[in-house]
Specification:
The complex is a heterodimer. By secondary structure, chain A is an alpha/beta fold. Chain A has helices spanning 10-23, 37-45, 65-68, 71-81, 104-109, 120-129, 146-158, 174-182, 196-201, 208-213, 224-240, 259-268, 299-302, 318-322, 354-370; strands spanning 30-36, 56-63, 86-90, 114-116, 134-141, 164-170, 190-193, 217-219, 245-247, 269-271, 274-277, 281-284, 288-290. In chain A, the strands form four sheets. Chain A has a five-stranded parallel beta sheet with strand order 2-1-7-8-9. In chain A, helix 2 (37-45) links the parallel strand 1 and strand 2 (56-63). Chain B is α+β, with helices and mostly antiparallel strands. Chain B has one domain (5-87): SH3 type barrels, CATH 2.30.30.140. Chain B is built from two helices and five strands. Chain B has helices spanning 62-75, 77-87, and strands at residues 5-14, 19-24, 27-32, 48-52, 55-60. Chain B starts with a strand and ends in a 5-residue tail after the last helix. The chains are: A alpha/beta, B alpha+beta. Chain A binds chain B through residues 6, 8, 36-38, 41-42, 45, 64-66, 91-93, 116-122, 125, 128, 140-141, 144-145, 147-148, 151, 155, 196, 199-200, 222-224, 251-252, 258-261, 264, 351-352, and chain B through 1-4, 17, 32, 34-36, 38-40, 50, 52-55, 57-58, 60-61, 64, 67-68, 70-71, 74-75, 77-78, 81, 85-86, 88-92.
């Protein structure tokens, strides 16, 4: 238990780990999925796996917004960014995501006006400062980030800004989880629910996991101890035969979510009939587009985005890793043709991507286990 | 971009535009407070909030804020990068 010493609550972490071990049925294999990419990062960064009994397996879920964006949407963003009248703004994470003909950083080097922003409100300021240019914001993210785009658009509308549009790629967390539960590839026992998404949507939307599929769910915080405690809560439910949604992160996550955020989202967005996800294919009502009232701010309408479907490179197995069917090092190109320096797939780009997290932190613990220094 | 970072409100700048100045590990930048300062709840100078892409997402108590800050400092690079991006931000 090397990593446990790095925890600020080392003693407590040890006690929780011991309790998990004590209630683990040695004859059973447990598959728990952490949905959120931030959790995946913490799990690798702190070697959480090494603190759990061998019977308890953590499976990485589809909760990294950069990773789930299909290559067609990356290409379409790049096509908008290449237009001479456009200033294309996006979060730093998007800059190196590979499209089929390069990434945003490369077209920037070739002269496209691509600017990294911290906030959609920075994109709005750039639009105000450049009235003779068209400013497009590349919106990505789950329900954590969607309210910020919604509030930004409400402000743009109030100011009647005519040179600001949003290329909307916001996605919702519940439909892909349902798709995973419907898929025969994967047998999961329980879910570690996302923390920040839940500050917005609350805990109610996870009710389908116990109610329709008989799977417990615990909404978890981001510190290593939060994750251990959440695993313990799930193990208690599994041992006792209980099946419900619990909130380990109640100090931040209100059961009902953030009503102001939900209200803004309802005004600005509507559900798309379907949306393509990397690795998961088309999923009904799994993404957001701008509502009728905000059509003037919709980059897809202004630039008539064609909706092209582009297959991932043949060697790339991001889809299988996203579905939890493969672990990162089981991918054919992991660490060879695909590294954080030269990523082939999106899961190697974002720090929340399972492959980048595993490459940066997981290998160390993996190697230690290999040479027998675990314990 | 998926990080939430704790910051302390140092000034409410505009009640209509819902802008406040927040201090995040010594970096002072403007943020939007519309999600935590509305008919359901209010924030005040001195309060801690969880900030995501320039928006206060929720209230934090001080112990929680300190605990999250320490955890972020431990993760190192990703937090440094987030602060770097925050430094370049000029929300108006």
């Amino acid at each position: 238990m090397k990593y446990v010493d790095e925890f600020r609550n080392g003693e407590l972490a040890r006690a929780v780990a011991a309790e998990i071990a004590s209630i683990t049925d040695p004859g059973r294999h447990y598959k728990l999925m952490e949905i959120c990419g931030g959790h995946t990062h913490t799990i690798y960064r702190h070697g959480i796996k090494d603190l759990l009994p061998d019977q308890v397996e953590l499976v990485h879920g589809p909760g990294c917004p950069v990773c789930v964006l299909p290559m067609g949407r990356v290409d379409e963003g790049i096509a908008i960014a290449e237009r001479p009248e456009v200033i294309f703004t996006c979060f730093g994470d998007m800059m190196r995501v590979p499209g089929s003909r390069g990434n945003l950083l490369e077209i920037k080097a070739e002269g496209a006006d691509v600017r990294m922003v911290y906030s959609p409100l920075d994109a709005l300021r750039i639009a105000r400062e450049n009235p003779d240019r068209e400013v497009v914001f590349y919106a990505i993210g789950f329900e954590t980030t969607a309210p910020s785009t919604a509030l930004t658009l409400q402000r743009a509308k109030k100011e009647s800004l005519e040179n600001f549009t949003v290329f909307c790629n916001h996605v919702t967390i519940v439909p892909p989880v349902r798709a995973l539960l419907d898929s025969p590839d994967l047998r999961l026992d329980a879910f570690i629910g996302p923390g920040h998404v839940s500050t917005v949507i609350g805990c109610r939307p996870y009710g389908f996991m116990p109610e329709d599929y008989g799977k417990p769910c615990v909404v978890a915080g981001f510190e290593p101890l939060d994750l251990l405690q959440s695993v313990l809560m799930l193990m208690h439910q599994l041992r006792d035969g209980r099946c419900e949604v619990e909130n380990q992160y109640s100090r931040i996550v209100p059961w009902e979510g953030n009503l102001a955020a939900l209200k803004s989202m309802a005004e600005v967005f509507e559900l798309r009939p379907y949306f393509e996800w990397r690795g998961l294919g088309f999923i009904a009502q799994s993404a957001l587009k701008l509502s009728e009232a905000y059509a003037d701010f919709d980059a897809e309408l202004r630039y008539s985005v064609p909706g092209v479907r582009v297959a991932d490179p043949k060697a790339c197995q991001c889809g299988e890793v996203l579905k939890g069917v493969l672990k990162p090092p089981e991918c054919k190109v992991f660490g060879t043709a695909c590294t954080p320096e030269k990523p082939l797939g999106a899961l190697m780009v974002s720090s929340e991507g399972a492959c980048a997290a595993y490459y940066n932190f997981g290998r160390k613990s993996y190697e230690k286990v290999e040479i027998g220094t675990k314990g | 971009m998926c990080l939430g970072i704790p910051g302390r409100i140092v000034e409410i700048l505009d009640e209509d535009l819902l802008l406040a100045k927040a201090d995040v590990s010594g970096v002072r930048r403007n943020i939007n407070i519309g999600l935590v300062h509305n008919e359901d709840e209010k924030i005040e100078v001195g309060d801690w909030v969880l900030i995501h892409v320039g928006f206060a997402m929720s209230h934090l108590n001080e112990a929680e804020a300190q605990s999250q800050l320490q955890a972020l400092e431990e993760i190192g690079e990703a937090y440094e990068q987030e602060l770097e991006e925050l430094r370049a931000s000029q929300i108006e």
